[in-house]
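User: I want to check something. If I give you two sequences, will you return the structure for each one separately, not as a complex?

Assistant: Yes, each is folded on its own. Here is the first sequence with its structure:
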Amino acid sequence: MTIRTLTLAVVLFAAVAAAAESTYTVRRGDTLRKISKRFGVSQDALLSANGLEKSSELKRGQTLTIPGSQTSSKSLGKKIGTAEVVIDNAIPHAGPFNGAKSLDPLALGESFRALDKKPGWIDLELPSGEGWVPSSLVKFTPNPTDVVTAPKPVAVAVAKTPAAKKELKKVAIAQAIRHAADSGNPLLTKALAYQGVRYRWGGTSRSSGVDCSGFTTSVFKTQGIKLPRTALEQSHIGDGVTKGDLKPGDLVFFRTSRSYRVNHVGIYVGEGKFIHAATGAGHVMVSSLDEKYYLRCYATARRVADVQTASRAAAASKAATDEEVGQ
């Protein structure tokens, strides 16, 4: 055997060995069964490769050898990009749809690997496993190799299609959400954290669901502002505001039925967008005041208070109470 042939054999052997074996760092919530299923290897093979017994407990941060794994590119950690959370307490879900099991909330500014995308959702690699979040709650940065720049003439032509127009609306809403989240307005931060919470008539709880006025009542309560319970009652408090003078934090009202009475309310977040518990969609979401439906149903707007001042007062009151309790 020549030296060249021997060298080639060594290289091939090393490549096969690398493909047949990989490592994995144990995360919170991992079990031997979960890891076995994820990498497509038997539990006995995992135990043998790592010198473990069936009674052994996995520890977070522990490095395991994965023998002869036949993992998919997704399981091996291939990512389509990164995603940065743009609001505090963003709720991930077990699946890419509202109603899927809610997972532990994410903090503003956290970044995660993005593993997959579906319309309106992004799959993230979280410390406890995978979780889907609405794409409007994160700033997605694709891998450079995945970015395809289309010629300008083509982009202009595509932008005229209904699908492209719909996508542009989504982008505009996502941009408004990011700007609202970056504004530092505490009321908007609380309101945006409700995105994806299910609609429940009469509900006032983030955990079990809210209706439109239950949503606004709960959000304003966090800033030390008590609102009446119904949308109609809320439309009679504070100061009236014209549509052209709306400011983030103002309440916007609608008549969504044939009745002349106000029966729906949301919170203006800026850039022509508002957040509300939508009956039709079945969850809290951000919509545009320029949509035909809301243009037709729009009734009035009210400015209840200076939410920044109210927030500072609420924080000072809480601090004083905490200090008193601590003494």
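And separately, the second sequence with its own structure:
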Amino acid sequence: MAFAQKYPIKLSVFVLLIMLCFMHSACSNLAVIASGNGLVDNRHGKRTLGSRIEDKSIETKTLINIKNSDPAFKNSRIVVVSFNGYVLLSGQTRSIELKKNARDIAKKIRHVERVYNEIEISDPVSTLTQINDAWITSKVKFSLFLNKDFPSSHTKIVSEKGSVYLMGLLTERESNKAIRIIKKNSGIQKIVRLVEYID
């Protein structure tokens, strides 16, 4: 009671988030795509501080190099996400050539292990679509976090036009469990699995 009196707004927001997460409808017919082959590794799912810093560096360098490579990228919306050296390119650009250029640039960045090029050939999405994607990402992250037996800290969730990309260092069993959890969230059009498998 004391907490509720002291933090009335924060508590109400937290309760609202809980309610929204449990009010969503199941999406049992979602397409689940495995982009590329999972790489089996003997690490145990945890990234070091150095890996986290390196991922941020990869994201920054890749995005800057893409934007500076061609003036046409000024009319594109490019999103770069790196997890343990696995790079996801998403967003929109207006030509296949620009999409290929973005991939080639990402591949040349130091410490990049693999590039998943999910950039679409179209005009940039609206702000409303971006807000919806951010909401989907938040819901999915929260639903993974609520499952105590699932290592949500070993994952990265990216949403783009209703498609959810699952990145992370997981066992095959954990990956399958993540897909089951993600499917329970509403508003998702497709799930793409970009997981680095561990023993």
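Because they were folded independently, the notes below concern the second chain alone. The longest strand covers residues 86-93. Confidence is low (pLDDT under 50) at residues 1-28, 39-43.
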